[in-house]
Amino acid sequence: MHIELLLTGNEIMSGDTIDSNSSRIAHQLARLGLIVKRKVTVGDDPNLLENELEEMISRSNLVIMNGGLGPTVDDLTAEVVASVANLKLVEHPQAIQHLNDWCSKRNLAVNSANYKQAMLPENCDILPNSIGSAVGFIVQIGKCTLMCTPGVPGELIPMLDVIVERLNDKNIFSESKILRLQTFGIGESTAQQLINDKIKFWPSEICLGFRASLPQLEIKLTISDKKHLSTLLEYKEKVCGLLGAHVIGEGEASLAQEVLKLLAEKKATLTTVESCTGGLIASMLTKESGASKSYQSGLVVYSNEMKTQLLNVSKDTLELEGAVSEPVVIEMARNALSLCSADYVIAVTGVAGPAGGTKEKPVGTVWLCWGNLQELKSCCLFWPLERTLFQTLVSAAGLDLIRRHISNYDPLPHYLIKKARA
Predict the structure, then answer these.
(1) Residue 246 near residue 237, CB atoms below 8 Å
(2) pLDDT by residue (tens digit) across 214-232?
């Protein structure tokens, strides 16, 4: 299955718009085991677009063309496709109906520029657009299926589900298979070295890949022929056994999702109390649908005054130990559990920088506390990173540590082992 992507638009070529759509498309196709072989970005030049599209169609089973479906003169996709496929541009009745309905819902009048979006290659199939005014469309040109999609990311995203359905309808299945393992707390080089040291034979049928996407690391195992599926599953288990609790899950698994799943299984609740992360842990949790069942409250206590007033952290402890200290973070955690009537807690206090550090507590110092009233654990980490990256990793570490606590994982995570050795 040879697949190529054609991205269009002067705004991408000039750098005014960052191309995120190609990664979205490739990511969605990869779920089906379909791998994009090539992608090209071309500006709004009809001759260049036609030449590129002709070449792609000549060697591909599937081409997805993204962008150029709008109402303006630089939206050239329909015209280019009609020319390459030797088809007439006609007013498509489904596109007209969609356009009229879209404008009617917004109390807008359909103008002549809008109607340009309904002029499509004859006999094309429609890809419905649930968000915008321009539909996508599909044209079969010889052996190649050409799918044309809008360039606005918010319109493309829901259309990708439709594309997957259409590909399934066409019985386009790949012989390849990808297993994606989501991990946290271990870097690419460390993971690779562990695999090199502990798995002496790595089969040539399985391609091993890594994708660092902070805060998580994705490890991909890919086969090009499903006859090697049993080998793929065998080596997935070997990698999972080697990395242990650093493996969060498969596919799209995230730390927040896994924490919420564990809490739901125990019918337990979690609260968070954050200083240096400013509510980022709470944000990561509440991005997940249904989070309110297990996550009902959280506190951001940034100043010492609020730590005292809202959480009843001892003034004496703050003055003696400082806000970034083990006694303070433990008090924050214990008092938050009581105040919020929760079963579990994550507490963090640290120096995010770039200012505020001291010789004793430099920028990047953070204390974390996690657990329940029966057992609270704490640790100090030193991650001297840019402020946003520091907050992201600290928040992820908090979620990872409570995940491990709830699951009763005994081994220390790699980042705590490294700290203990430092």
Answers:
(1) no
(2) 899 999 999 988 899 999 9
